[in-house]
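Thread: Selenocysteine-specific translation elongation factor, structure

OP (GT): Posting the sequence first so everyone is looking at the same thing. Length is 265 residues per the record. Can we get the structure tokens written out before standup tomorrow? I want them in the notebook alongside the other entries.
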Amino acid sequence: NPVSEPLKKEQKNKFLMLLKNKELKKAFEFLKNTHKYGFGLLSSYQRFKLSHEEALNLAKELNGVFIDEKNLNIYNLLALDELKKFISFILEKNPYAMLSASSLALRLPWASAEFCEFGLQNLSNLLEFEKGVYFKKGINYEKLREKNNDELYNILKKQGIKPQAPYNLYEFLELDRKSGDEILKKLTKQNRVIRLSHNLFVEKNALDKLMQECLEILKSQSLDIQSMKERFNLSRKYAIAYLEYLDKDERVQKKDEKRFLKTNI
């Protein structure tokens, strides 16, 4: 089956003529100049009757390209300007951003991690690199980590018993996932934040307050998933996580998915 090229009719005719005449290098050059955010070679045999190795070797004959051999992508170096603009935009919005190739690739669907790494390395006039993280030149790395540590904690404190998932918080703070995970791990170790499930981290005081409210409710009635959802306006996922945490209290007993105070049974 032919592979559909996202080209306008006039462009497609030109491209097909190059293929018909077996001018493959010119075809690659055409694709390089036409596709602003790169083109792939995953289907190189289907498109050009070339193996991946043959297609990559041909791509290496082109000028002004970055070749991502791992992901079989060819990028016009002009795309580097778009990546640099995006990185500059992030730093203008948040000078304390902690960046990595993988975090950028998650934000830019067209850019592979390899291309992002290439772009980051080409911004030595703007960025510094330490412990796997790129950050704004002139900022002390340890102060940067401490700043983001405090920011993440304050956000979780403000969000109380309905915190966002970690990856949403990382994106808001412009943190790469590894750095964000390390900060959450530190906050958890300090007992300032409690991890209830894979993506649920709650500020300790907010959790303690909720547990006290639950114990107070249990003096007069039981609690289950539905009543937790309704009383505290929680999602089912959060209601289950909080009930499971409540189960750790020796004063509470679970019976038929309901929670009771042992003294009331």
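GT: Both are above now. Quick notes for whoever picks this up: The chain has four domains: 9-76, 79-136, 141-192, 205-264. The first strand starts at residue 39 and ends at 40.
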